[in-house]
Predict the structure.
Amino acid sequence: MEHHGQLHRKMNHMWDLVVMQAREQLRAAKQRRKGDRLVIACQEQTYWLVNRPPPGVPNVLEQGPKRGSCTARQVLMTKNADFYKREIECCRRALGRTRVKSSVSLEAYLKFSNQHRPHDPIMSGCLPSNPWITDDDTYWAINAPRVAEPTQLRVQRWAFSFQELLEDPVGRAHFMDFLRIEFSAENLSFWEACEQLRHGGQAQVPGLVDAVYQQFLAPGAAHWVNIDSQTMERTLEGLQRPHRYVLDAAQLHIYMLMKKDSYPRFLKSDMYKTLLVEAVIPPETKRRVFPFMWKPRRSSPSPALLPASASGECVAAPGGPGGGPGEA
């Protein structure tokens, strides 16, 4: 912890410079042509391959504050046939390893931050008021797990990912209504039944497994779901010794089917667009506390810059707290 504190103090004053350089690199990377980006990426990979520490030399980027002893270093510097074989194999794996460029990572991070910023209670505030610093609990009431009318921010989160939609009870209920219109509600019902099996009691597992199989997977089932033959074979083998995870393969198959097929159509449907328009936008009832959450105020024009009146006289600018007459 002491070494970490020293490093933090040394790098703290340089953080603004690092952020500025990262933004400039991202902006320059977007303006480059595809061929130039490919050349720079190859140059970067070549640089790190050439300038990597020699075999047996401790790497300061990978070791902690505690350094090895001299004896250990002498052992590491021992070079034999096995040592070079390991180094060659390590280099081969390094060349075949997939790496993400810093520009791509920074762009994804900025996109994630801009997308989630309006939904962060600390960065954007709580509407209608902050329940952590006031006695008003309206924020908890309008964001309860089950409400009649969801807020607009809540409906917008459903478009972030399919998992966000399933984790929200209100969003899952509206998605179920959409699937009923498309005659595929059994997919979501099967997924919910598998979740109940996974998180249910151990004594209820055999009964739940049999009920889910008879309702969704058995030939001629009332709500039969379509899964591939290989998944069905693995599921039938697992049913001989039922446990709470026996339907995971079938559940994953249905989950990916809804994610790739039904979920995009739900976001483009008139139902979701109507929910987004009719969603509740709570009004702000209390000023935000933290300075970075205040909305910038629009400055009023100076009286000295007001246009002249119809009589040809200009409005005088006050000379001090008490004000003073101006000259025409």
